From TrEMBL:
Sequence ranges of the TPR repeats: 597-630
PANTHER family attached to this UniProt entry: C-TYPE POLYHEME CYTOCHROME OMCC, DISSIMILATORY SULFITE REDUCTASE SIRA
Boundaries of every Doubled CXXCH motif domain copy: 349-376
Species annotation: Bosea massiliensis
Superkingdom field: Bacteria
A Pfam family per the record: Cytochrome_C554
Name of the protein in question: Tetratricopeptide repeat protein
Keyword Nucleus: no
Length: 778
C-alpha cells in the first residue's frame, strides 16, 4: 500500500531541476565590500559600567520635559495595582459576556477578581499590576512561578457618552477554552514575553529554562526616560561634574544620531515640501521602532543609535498582518506603516509630528500637517472633492485610514497613502472613502476620485496588485514581484516581502533576483534573500557566505543558520571564524525566548542541521510542554521520530496534540502521513481529509489527500479533491501537474491543453510543460 502511494506520487510530480549558479556570480558576491551596504553602527561606544537611575533623576535639569512625560501614556504604560493607577470599577462588579463571567472587587487595599482559572473553575485571583492607560486599561495577575498573565477583561476608560466606563472582553465574543494557548492563564497572554519589553524600562526577562519559571526584573515600571535615552547614571555624573563639552555623548553610552542639520522647505500653493538631508542609520525613528513595530527580539543589548535590525527582527508585510497594499490589518503598530510612506523616505521623523515627551501631536488634529503642507493648496474642494466646512474630511480622515483594535482602540495607519477605491475593486483591500460613505460602492468612490484627479492614480505604495495577484496564484503576480524586489524606489519592507513571496515561484529569474538581493542596501532584504536559499544544495547556499560578516546582526544570524551544517574548511580562511560567531549569535537569539515553543523549535532545527538529533529531540519535547497545541512543531518532531525509526512514538505524540486541539491541520496531516507509512491507509485517509478541511488555505494538505485517495483506488474522488484544490489555489503546481497527468491518461486533450498552458505560465523555465502544450496544440 505504501509502495502504491509512493508510485502515485512519482507519477503525478514533475521535479523541476535546479539551475546551477554560475561561478562568476559567486565570486562577485564573495568579493563585495562592506561599502556597498548602507552604513550601520555595528559597534556602539561603551562609556563604562552604565547604570539606570530612574526618571526622577532627570527632573532637576529637565523639568519641562519631565512634566510633559509625566502626563503621557508612556509614564502610565504600567504600574502597581494601587488607587492612583487603577481606573476600573472594583466596587464588587459582576460582568457577563459571551458565556463568560467575572467579578471585580476589593479586599481592603488589594484588588481582586473572581474568574475561570486554568482548570476551568472559578477562583479568586489578586491583581498585581495595571497595564496601559487609555482608551482601555488591562490588568495582570502574578503567579507563583513568576509569570504575569493578562486578564481577558479590560476597563474601557472612555467617557460614558462615548460608550466607555465599562468592563469588556478584549478578545470579543469568541469562546476560548482553558486548554487554548490564548486563554488568559496560558502562553499567548503571558506578559513576560508579550508585553514586558515595551511597558518597562531596562527589562531583564529572567527566564529559568530548567525550572520553567521567571525572575523578571526592571529598573522602572512604565516607559521612562532611560527606555529611550539609555542608562543615565554616567550622564548624571557628567552633569554634576561640570557638563564638559569634551564628551559629545554627555556621559551616555550612545545616542541616536541626528545627522546634519535639516532644513525644511514648506509647501506653497505650487510646490511640495522638501528636506535637504537624508536619514542617518539608527536615527530617532529606530528608537521608536523598538516598541512601535511588529517584531521579534534577537538581542538584548539595545542602545540608542542602533538600527532596529541589530537587536530585533521586523516581520514582513505578510498577508495575515497587512493588506495587499501594506495597510495595517492585524495589530502591527505604526513603524511598518510609517516606513512605507513617502514622508519617511523624504526624511520625516516621528518627532516632526509628535512631541517626544508628551506623545501628543504638535498641533491639533490635521493642523499638524500644515507644518509642511500649505492649507491654501490642500484644504480646498479642488483637492479633496469636499467643501471646506464643519464635518468635512481632513488630511487625517483621508490619508490615515483607521482601524479599531482590542474592541475600543482606534488607530490610524501611518503610511500616509492616497485613497484608492479602485484597488478595492481589483484587489479587495479597504479604502478610506467607504469608511465615511459606507452606503456607497467602491466603484462610486473610484469614479468620484477620477472626476477630481483624472484617470491616472499616483502614490508611493505601488505593490497592491503585485501581492494580490501573486497570492492568488496568477503568473502576472510573479512578474510583478520580480520587478518589485529590485525596485530601489520601493520601501525596503515591500522589497523584503517580495523576496519572501518569490519562494513560491522558483525559476531562473527568481534565482537571479535573489542573488541580486543579497547585495541590497537594506538588511531586511538581505536577510530575506538568505532565507530563500534554505533547503538548497550546499554549493548553492555558499553564495551567502560573505554575509556571515555582514554589518547587521539580523543578516549574520540568518547566514549563520543557513550555513550551520557547512564544513568550515569550505570557507575562505577570513570567513571561518565568522561562521562560528554567526551560529553563536543565532543560538543566543533563540535563548532569549526559551519560554516560547517556537524558539525551542528553531534551536531544534539548528541541532538537526548539525547532526545532534538527541539535543533536537529534547528541544522539541520542551516546546510541546510549553504549548501542547503546537501542531506545526509536533509535525516537525514527528518527522524526527520517523527518521529515527520510532513511528509508534510519532503517532502517540501527534494524538496527544490532537486530544487538546482536534482541529490542528498540521498535526492531522502529520498523523495521516504516519498512518500511511504504517500501511493503515483507511485511517490515514480520515486524518488527511480532516487536515484539508481544517486548513483549506494550505493546498499541500488537499493534494496529499488526493494522492492517498488514488492510492486507495478512489480515482474519481481524488480527481474531485484536486479540481476543488486547483479552483481554490490556481497557482499550486503539484495539483495542476496531477490533473494534467490524469487528463493525458484519459486522452482528454482539451483539459490537458488548458493545464499545460497554465503550467507553462507558472513555471516558464520548465520546458517540458511548453513541449506538452505545443504537442497538444498540434
Amino acid at each position: 500500500m505504501l509502495r502504491d502511494l509512493s508510485r502515485a506520487w512519482r507519477q503525478w510530480r514533475f521535479l523541476t531541476p535546479w539551475l546551477a549558479l554560475v561561478l562568476s556570480a559567486f565570486i562577485l558576491t564573495a568579493i563585495r565590500t562592506q561599502a556597498q551596504i548602507a552604513p550601520a553602527q555595528r559597534d556602539v561606544r561603551d562609556a563604562g559600567p552604565a547604570r539606570h537611575v530612574g526618571s526622577q533623576a532627570c527632573t532637576t535639569c529637565h523639568a519641562s520635559q519631565s512634566a510633559a512625560w509625566a502626563g503621557s501614556h508612556h509614564a502610565h504604560a504600567m504600574d502597581h495595582a494601587r488607587p492612583s493607577s487603577m481606573r476600573g470599577d472594583f466596587a464588587d462588579r459582576t460582568v457577563e459576556e459571551a458565556g463568560r463571567r467575572a467579578r471585580f472587587f476589593r479586599d481592603g487595599e488589594v484588588y481582586r477578581v473572581n474568574i475561570e482559572g486554568a482548570d476551568g473553575r472559578p477562583a479568586d485571583f489578586t491583581i498585581s499590576h495595571s497595564l496601559g492607560w487609555e482608551p482601555l486599561q488591562q490588568y495582570l495577575v502574578t503567579f507563583p512561578d513568576g509569570r504575569l498573565q493578562v486578564l481577558p477583561w479590560a476597563w474601557d476608560t472612555r467617557s460614558a457618552a462615548d460608550g466607555g466606563q465599562r468592563w469588556f472582553l478584549v478578545s470579543g465574543a469568541e469562546a476560548i477554552a482553558p486548554s487554548d494557548s490564548r486563554h488568559w492563564t496560558r502562553l499567548q497572554q503571558n506578559w513576560n514575553h508579550m508585553c514586558a519589553e515595551c511597558h518597562t524600562t531596562d527589562l531583564r526577562k529572567g527566564y529559568d529554562a530548567r525550572a520553567d519559571r521567571f525572575e523578571t526584573r526592571w529598573s522602572e515600571l512604565a516607559v521612562g526616560c532611560e527606555a529611550c535615552h539609555g542608562p543615565a547614571g554616567l550622564h548624571v555624573s557628567w552633569a554634576r561634574s561640570g557638563a564638559s563639552a569634551a564628551d559629545p555623548l554627555k556621559g551616555f553610552a550612545a545616542v541616536a544620531p541626528a545627522g546634519p542639520a535639516r532644513h525644511w522647505t514648506p509647501a506653497t500653493a505650487e510646490t511640495r515640501p522638501a528636506v535637504t538631508t537624508g536619514r542617518p542609520a539608527g536615527d530617532s525613528v529606530e528608537t521608536c521602532a523598538r516598541c512601535h513595530s511588529r517584531r521579534g527580539q534577537i538581542a538584548a543589548d539595545w542602545r540608542p543609535g542602533r538600527p532596529l535590525t541589530e537587536t530585533h527582527s521586523p516581520v514582513p508585510l505578510a498577508a495575515g498582518l497587512f493588506e495587499h497594499d501594506g495597510q495595517m490589518k492585524d495589530e502591527v503598530f505604526n513603524d511598518h506603516s510609517f516606513k512605507q510612506s513617502l514622508m519617511y523616505h523624504r526624511g520625516v521623523s516621528c518627532t516632526d509630528c509628535h512631541d517626544p515627551h508628551s506623545g501628543r501631536l504638535k498641533a491639533a488634529g490635521a493642523a499638524v500637517c500644515s507644518q509642511c503642507h500649505a492649507p491654501a493648496r490642500f484644504q480646498t474642494a479642488a483637492h479633496s472633492g469636499h467643501a471646506d466646512r464643519a464635518g468635512a474630511p481632513d488630511c487625517i480622515s483621508c490619508h490615515m485610514p483607521a482601524r479599531t483594535y482590542m474592541q475600543v482602540d482606534r488607530r490610524h495607519d501611518h503610511s500616509f497613502r492616497i485613497p484608492r477605491p479602485d484597488l478595492t475593486i481589483s484587489t479587495g483591500i479597504p479604502n478610506t472613502c467607504q469608511a465615511c460613505h459606507g452606503d456607497r460602492t467602491a466603484l462610486w468612490a473610484a469614479e468620484a476620485v477620477e472626476r477630481w484627479h483624472g484617470p491616472v492614480r499616483k502614490g508611493f505604495q505601488t505593490y497592491a496588485t503585485a501581492f494580490h495577484e501573486a497570492r492568488a496564484g496568477e503568473p502576472s503576480g510573479r512578474d510583478a514581484l520580480l520587478r518589485l524586489a529590485v525596485d530601489p524606489a520601493a520601501p525596503a519592507l515591500a522589497r523584503a516581502t517580495a523576496i519572501g513571496e518569490l519562494a513560491a515561484w522558483p525559476g531562473a529569474q527568481t534565482d537571479a533576483v535573489g542573488l541580486r538581493a543579497l547585495d541590497d542596501p537594506d538588511p531586511q532584504v538581505r536577510a530575506a534573500a538568505i532565507r530563500q536559499l534554505e533547503g538548497l544544495p550546499r554549493e548553492r547556499r555558499l553564495v551567502a557566505a560573505p554575509l556571515l560578516d555582514d554589518p547587521s546582526r539580523l543578516v549574520r544570524i540568518a547566514a549563520g543558520f543557513l550555513l550551520a551544517d557547512l564544513p568550515v574548511e569550505l570557507l575562505p580562511p577570513k570567513l571561518q571564524p565568522a561562521l562560528a560567531e554567526a551560529v553563536a549569535a543565532y543560538v543566543a537569539a533563540q535563548e532569549l525566548d526559551l519560554d516560547r515553543p517556537e524558539a525551542r523549535a528553531n534551536r531544534a532545527q539548528l541541532h538537526l542541521k548539525q547532526g545532534r538529533a538527541e539535543e533536537a529531540e529534547r528541544d522539541y519535547r520542551a516546546a510541546l510542554r510549553l504549548d501542547p497545541t503546537a501542531g506545526l512543531i509536533a509535525a516537525q518532531f514527528a518527522e524526527l521520530l520517523r527518521r529515527t525509526g520510532r513511528e509508534d512514538q510519532a503517532e502517540a505524540m501527534l494524538r496527544s496534540v490532537l486530544a487538546v486541539d482536534p482541529r490542528s491541520g498540521a498535526a492531522l496531516h502529520a498523523l495521516g502521513l504516519s498512518l500511511v507509512r504504517q500501511k493503515r491507509l483507511p485511517e490515514a485517509l480520515g486524518s488527511l481529509a480532516q487536515a484539508s478541511e481544517a486548513e483549506p488555505g494550505n493546498p499541500r494538505y488537499a493534494f496529499v489527500h488526493a494522492v492517498a485517495l488514488r492510492s486507495a483506488g478512489r480515482a474519481q474522488q481524488a480527481r474531485s479533491v484536486l479540481e476543488e484544490n486547483l479552483a481554490r489555489h490556481p497557482g499550486h503546481v503539484d495539483t495542476a501537474v496531477a490533473l494534467l497527468h490524469e487528463a493525458l491518461q484519459n486522452r482528454d486533450h482539451g483539459r490537458a491543453a488548458q493545464l499545460a498552458k497554465r503550467l507553462t505560465a507558472l513555471r516558464p523555465d520548465d520546458r517540458r510543460f511548453e513541449g506538452i502544450s505545443r504537442d497538444l496544440n498540434r
